[in-house]
Amino acid sequence: MKNLVGIILLILIFCQGNLCAQQYDEAPSYAEDYAFVTQDGAWCWFSDPRAVYVENKIIGGFVDKQGSIWAFSYDPVNQQKKQYKLKDQLDYDDHANPSVMILPDKRIMIFFSAHGGTTNSPIYYATTEKPVDISSWSKLDSIVPKMPGNLGVCYTNAAMLSGENNRTYLFFRGRNFKPTFIASDDLKNWSAPVTIVVNDSIYGESGRPYMKMTTNHKDKIFFAFTDAHPRDRATNSIYFMMYKDGKLCKANGDVVSESMEHAVMPSQVDKVYDATKTFDKAWIWDIAFDKDENPVLVYARFSDRDNSHSYWYARWTGSEWENHLITKAGQWFQRSNYVKEKPEYECNYSGGVYLDHENPSIVYTSRPINNVFEIERWIFVGGKEKWKTETVTSESSRDNVRPFVVRNHKGGQPDVLWMYNYEYPGFRAYNSAIRINQKAKGFSSELNKEAISQVANAVFDWQMKDYKVNRNSCNQGWVSGVLYNGLFDWADCSNNKGYIDFLNKIFSGFSWQVGNRMYHGDDLCVGQAYLDMYAKFKKENMLVPTKARVDWVMANPPAENIDVTKGHSDRWWWCDALYMAPPVYARLYTLTGNKKYMKFAHKEFLATYDHLYDKEEHLFYRDARYLDTKDENGTKVFWSRGNGWVIAGLVEVLKNLPEEDKKYRPFYLQLYREMCEKLIELQGEDGYWRSSLLNKETFPMPETSGTGLFTYALAYGVNQGHLPKDKYMPAVEKGWNALVKAVNTEGKIGWVQMVADKPGKVEKKSVRGYSVGSLLMTAAELYEFLEKK
């Protein structure tokens, strides 16, 4: 029986540990966790394929926000990326994206054209000089289709058929706004253009059918198309036909045209979805075929009643067409600057729905969830259930739209690409990246200048971008005070004028004033960065406001009470204050040479030390409320970030006390070393300190604010020789690795405990300025460490 109890206890302990790990290892997959294919690229969905696998590498193309056309390659094994500019500034329009075709020798051919072309605008094409290598290309060639109409050509889609001696058919929208093709047997000489679809006669010459196509690369080409643009036709329906044995047929094989040389009308082919029955107009998104070469389509429907979008799945069973609702899809994804009540011209721009061509029972969608467009995977299972769904992205910061499944992927390979929108008011005004469903390797945590600079610059840049949309992220409060210290340290260390200018602009906007509360240490914290700027530039306006506040406090010292449980206190009654205020006094002592500043600060520091420091544990309680508090396990409660404030505050004081100082420095150095000795015992194997220092299991999630402050403090000690390198540098390296791991591809550091006064739950998506600041302070210390080596 005793053995059984012991086994059960071991199982419970093991399970608890695994559950703790799962709480953060299985955190949501934000879009920002996924790797970039490019950080500047966009596409429409009418030129395909946009990317293909060739010998386990992805090769594709995109158009950037300068309108330039690029080829790219991406190796999922090592996440190495290459890009090649094929045409500079062709057309700032995401409809100008290129399409790709694999040649039998595995060279790559790319086709593209401007969207807003003219009567003589060409289709461009180029071929790689070597197989599976985009580093060198043939001369960019062009085709100028001579045909009726005065519009540009666009939307390239190529199909090479081995059953026709590798004849290539290139489909596009012609100058008459109709689906058109040209053909070539040598990829040099092209036939005259032929229109393949025209309007039914009752509609006259107007209208522009939109077409999607795919091929089995042997003897068939599958087509899905509409009557027109959904904006132009209230009953815009979806149609199907296929090219087989030189003829155009319905899905059941009935011939509708003896040759592609003779255009067909929608009324002659399969009507997959009939909008005249629902008055929900539609737009085609993709077409594929199953293992029996039965066609499968996905399309969007639009209700004119409320302009709501929905995604639909249609398949040919062998005898009939079935249509199945996938999901409701919200509305258009553009985020325009004008008032939402104004009609959106491109109101039919859905987030996107796309088939996996290797298994067309799988569909990827983009739809709004909590007001952000997210990517999901849907699996058609039939029956009553019909669909199973999985999230690809969730709780993302920005919209994820227009998914595309890479052709020729194999099991286990990352296979979905999508646009990640920084801004998208319209197809001629976009700022987008392209991501892939492979978790990014992240930044390197190697201790070299290049790696440190890459992550620190990314974090600083993220903060500057965030400030543009969230001005309150940089204010006069304590959160920003810590942030500014890190921003200044890295700006100064990297000698980046743009970063210094950013700080100067913010501080000047505040007229270099500290916060409003006269005594509160939190409202003095921003003065640290002001004084650092003064030390660098010697401008009096950077000094005077902070000095005036401190002088007033010293002339009007607060009342004696420091125990907040006994009533109001204006003193440094909470341990955080030892970071917020004493470093300001220490800086003033250094800058002015006036000993009164350090005398006052030391007196107040000792009061807090005597009040909150546990001399057995060598840690600080957050405030008097926790002096006798125990957690559910009977453990003393020591808050990670609270002690992080103290140890980082000690560093700031030591940095500003002269080396020869014998009155104050010995005390602070001794306390600093004492705390460091304790802290390295409490670091997790993964480099993080948990929010509850003595009870890691209560809140097992990573936490970067305490970790950042501790790592900064330890790095400083090693740097200055206050701590033995062989003992403490491993902890610094683990801490830095943990911090870097928490930085996503956008430069945003997560796993931050929100504003609090005790240990608590941490979420991956949480971010606050104090983690940004502590990471940048650490980066500056490590950079200095490398400078000394």
Output the keywords.
789 residues, alpha+beta, Methylamine Dehydrogenase, Chain H, Glycosyltransferase, 2 domains, 14 helices
Summarize the structure in words.
By secondary structure, this protein is an alpha+beta fold. The protein has 2 domains: 408 residues, Methylamine Dehydrogenase, Chain H (7 Propeller), CATH 2.130.10; 340 residues, Glycosyltransferase (Alpha/alpha barrel). Strands 15, 16, 17, 18, 19 and 20 form a 6-stranded antiparallel β-sheet that branches. Strands 6, 7, 8, 9 and 10 form a 5-stranded antiparallel β-sheet that branches. Strands 1-31-30-29 form a 4-stranded antiparallel β-sheet, with no helix packed on it. A hairpin with a 3-residue loop joins strand 27 and strand 28. Helix 2 packs antiparallel against helix 14 and helix 3 runs parallel beside helix 5. The longest helix has 24 residues. The protein is elongated, with a radius of gyration of 32 Å. The chain starts with a helix and ends with a helix. 49% of the residues are buried. About 3% of the residues have low confidence. Keywords: Hydrolase, Signal. InterPro entries: 6-hairpin_glycosidase_sf, 6hp_glycosidase-like_sf, Glyco_hydro_88, Glyco_hydro_beta-prop_sf, PolySaccharide_Degr_Enz. One of its GO terms (molecular function) is hydrolase activity.
